[in-house]
Amino acid sequence: MAFLFNQKGQGSKKSRRDELLEHRSTLMDEYQKTSEGFDRTIITLASSALGISVAFLNDIVPERDPNTLPILGAAWILIGLSLAAIVFSFLFAIKSRKSAIRDIDLVLRGGTEKETKYPRTATALSWVSAITLILGIFLYLVFAVMNL
């Protein structure tokens, strides 16, 4: 977190305390937005995946080749992993913001900053989510093409 703030002697007109308070305010806003977006994102992803799959399976491909069902199963597993990873990513992002706010409060009281693993974990989970979603959609498309 130290790289976010100006170091002494670099000509900054703001005090370190003012920078910390400003950054804390920004983190509080981000924390609020992340928390609000969490429910909306999960609801949107889950309902979209369910709606598209049901419509596709029932209306477009009512007669499925049984040999392609493992592909569909793998697609569903990957999409499910993607949803799980994004849920955990949001949770780690929220934890990260809360941890950063606590660290700033600690520094403002005269303590020292601590490094946390939460941002790296949230980023890694976001990548896992994106990759598994892309692979799941790809397998779902393979299933669709093989059954048309």
What this model shows, in words?
The structure is a single chain. By secondary structure, the protein is an all-alpha fold. The protein has one domain (about 15-145). The protein contains three helices and no strands. Helix 1 (about 15-60) packs antiparallel against helix 2 (about 70-110) and helix 2 packs antiparallel against helix 3 (about 120-145). It is elongated.
Q: Biggest β-sheet, characterized?
A: none
Helical content stands at over 70%
Terminal residue distance: 53 Å
Overall pLDDT:
80
Shape: elongated
Question: What is the number of independent domains?
Answer: 1
Number of strands: 0
Continuous helix count: 3
SS-derived structural category: mainly alpha
Topology order in helix (H) and strand (E) letters:
HHH
Beta-strand share of residues:
under 5%
C-alpha Rg, in Å?
A: 22 Å
Unreliable stretches? 1-7
Observed structural traits:
0% strand, 148 residues, mainly alpha
Question: What's the arrangement of secondary structure elements?
Answer:
Layout: H1 16-60, H2 69-108, H3 118-147
Helix pairs in contact: 1-2, 2-3
Short description:
The chain is an all-alpha fold and 148 residues long.
